[in-house]
Specification:
Strand content: 25-35%
Oligomer: single chain
Shape: elongated
Largest sheet: 5 strands, mixed
Structural class: alpha+beta
Radius of gyration: 29 Å
CATH superfamily of the largest domain: Histidine kinase-like ATPase, C-terminal domain
Number of strands: 8
Length: 278
Amino acid sequence: MEQKVLNGEVAGSTGEIKLIKKGGGEAIIHLAISRVAANGKPAAIQSIAHDMTDEKRMQENLHFFLRQVTRAQEEERKRIAQELHDDTVQALAILARRIDTLTVKGEKLRKPDLIMLLEELRQETNHIMQGVQRLSQDLRPATLDRLGILAAVEWLASRTAEYSGIEVNVNFVGEERRLPDEVELVLFRITQEALRNVWRHAEATLANVVVEFGDMKTSITVTDNGKGFDAPNSAADLPRYGKLGLAGMEDRAQLLGGTIQIISRPNHGTTVRAELPV
């Protein structure tokens, strides 16, 4: 091909080639070949090579991650629908039948029996309300909108400790303040995912969350005393290592110009630090 370019048979050539690195890894190179002229005549060949290994890997990971995100979204929709059907809808159906019974037999019931039945209906109604509120809070906690990121993280830590049995401590540094809505939401989702990982995967007994309010940035650091793991060298490799939750954190942070730092070693716990400009 170089000779054809030099002879003027083709204007130039571009393409990709794969190379095997000295250590055994694979590199993807984008190669562009063009003719260099001198005094109007072909004089030399110019070859420009660009290492696209990381870009290609990121593209592949992105496609993989998007498929996983779509699947996760559908699983979440399925979970919510199932929970509504199994808990809320059935509880409402039972409540409706009991109200029908009260309508039909209410006049025949003695006052103590009527009061007892009404109290049972009130308790069932409160139970249904609590279930709907819990589901709503899981989707988007009202505390985040009303009180800000610190209060929302404290609420999240309390809930995580309640259902997981893990001790979760929350501290903050700097002067607490409200942040832009999108920043608070991203920081909350990252913390939520980090604590979920601690609960599901880390086998930890303790997690510490530190919210740091700086002048130009806000950060959240989640540290656990769990089993840890071998963290990839690059965040772009997280999906291929099965760390979809961590990859999701990275994507959320990057959307707002932020960064994610993940430090972990086997038997030495894990630290996840998210830092966003404000």
